[in-house]
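Quick one, probably user error.
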């Protein structure tokens, strides 16, 4: 399933410089099979295509960044990958009042033309 409901508690508990490992086993939802469920859980609408697993990783990373910002922390991705039916992300968590405000600068929106 999703790790989204547990991110706030996990980020609150991890110390400055700590490593957070997040696994989401709902790759079908993240890869675009159920966009309504993905929006409800992650606040994002996935795109189907050859890049769907990359998009899944970025959706989970954006969810982690948003949760970290609520705790005035920022995350540094160490390694992220998908295998079979799940995604796993390893991020370093830092406490910094200045850097967490810059977290939104690294996020972007993807638009895909369905007519091309």
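Nope, works fine. Designed sequence:
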């Amino acid at each position: 399933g999703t790790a989204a409901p547990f991110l706030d508690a996990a980020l609150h508990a991890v110390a400055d410089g700590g490593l957070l490992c997040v696994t989401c086993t709902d790759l079908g939802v993240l890869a675009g099979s159920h966009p309504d469920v993905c929006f409800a859980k992650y606040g994002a609408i996935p795109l189907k295509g050859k890049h769907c697993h990359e998009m899944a990783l970025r959706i989970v990373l954006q969810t982690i960044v948003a949760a970290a910002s609520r705790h005035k922390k920022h995350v540094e991705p160490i390694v992220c990958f998908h295998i079979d039916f799940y995604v796993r992300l390893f991020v370093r968590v830092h406490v910094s009042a200045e850097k967490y405000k810059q977290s939104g600068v690294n996020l972007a929106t993807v638009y895909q033309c369905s007519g091309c």
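The helical segments are 7-13, 27-30, 35-42, 52-70.
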